[in-house]
Amino acid sequence: MKVAIIGTGRMGKGLLKTFYQAYGQNVLFTGRDVAHAQRTIEDLGLSIQAVTLEEALQADVIIPTLWFSDLLPWAQEHKEALKGKIVIDISNPFNENFDDFTTAYDTSAAEELQKVIPASQVVTAFKNTYWVVFDAPVLQGLKSDVYVASNSDQTRETVMRLLKPMPFRILDAGLLKNSRTIERMTLLSSELARKAGSHPRISFNLWGLEHEGLPKEKQDKAAALNPVS
Ligand SMILES: NC(=O)c1ccc[n+]([C@@H]2O[C@H](COP(=O)([O-])OP(=O)(O)OC[C@H]3O[C@@H](n4cnc5c(N)ncnc54)[C@H](OP(=O)(O)O)[C@@H]3O)[C@@H](O)[C@H]2O)c1
């Protein structure tokens, strides 16, 4: 399975490093300027070659790392090439001040993207993963959560399997409409982190779920305390 990451910005670089660690040469990378994408790859010390957008769009899984305002026109433009593909949406529809969203409460960036490309499978992931978190996604023994949502059970499972080798706790977040909550969790985490002075090194690890994110001895202790889990 080939994965294409599109965009050389902060999230593009973070995702490139993470996917490259897991999948090496099966990762395709590009931006609006291929030469700049190549320099980005070299700056990160990775041994792949930047590809053109046309080549990137041949991949099975496409991850556009654009801002929401640029994402829908971009998806509209490449609608044909995106047909039948899994498109991982990482966008949060922030306003200009980064203190609210441009979407209404009864929708989400992911759902709006799915409307533009109905013949593609849109999957929400990494919406709560601030770019610096990719460098160290484990804090005090706890992995950062990645909530994966899609309207197709099969596609969600495919993406969860794809992300499994990565140093995150990958969680099944159900249908795409759950992106409304997942995206707004980023908004809340941003405000909390700014108050705490820890922005942007912030992400979620939902307390009380499974124990995968814990070190082995803590997992055993937690399992002994709660034999149902
Ligand atoms: N920053 C975070 O911590 C974070 C966390 C979770 C989710 N997100 C989401 O991730 C997305 C990117 O955030 P970021 O912080 O990585 O932003 P960024 O550093 O500003 O990067 C934005 C990217 O968009 C591309 N781009 C801009 N305008 C474009 C256009 N008209 N057509 C095609 N590509 C265009 C640029 O790629 P090229 O110049 O290489 O073409 C650039 O790589 C946003 O949707 C954001 O909500 C961000």
Care to describe what's here?
The chain has helices spanning 10-23, 34-43, 53-56, 68-77, 79-82, 109-116, 153-163, 179-196, 216-225; strands at 3-6, 27-30, 61-64, 86-89, 121-124, 138-139, 142-143, 145-150, 169-172. The protein has 229 residues and is of the alpha/beta class. It has a domain at 66-225: NAD(P)-binding Rossmann-like Domain (Rossmann fold). The protein has a seven-stranded mixed β-sheet with strand order 2-1-3-4-5-8-9, sandwiched between helices. Strand 8, helix 7 (153-163) and strand 9 form a beta-alpha-beta unit. The chain is globular. The site of NADP nicotinamide-adenine-dinucleotide phosphate has 22 residues, from helix 1 and helix 4. NADP nicotinamide-adenine-dinucleotide phosphate binds at residues 7-12, 31-32, 65-68, 70, 74, 90-92, 127, 129-131, 200.
Topology:
Blueprint: E1 3-6, H1 10-23, E2 27-30, H2 34-43, H3 53-56, E3 61-64, H4 68-77, H5 79-82, E4 86-89, H6 109-116, E5 121-124, E6 138-139, E7 142-143, E8 145-150, H7 153-163, E9 169-172, H8 179-196, H9 216-225
Bound molecules: NADP nicotinamide-adenine-dinucleotide phosphate.
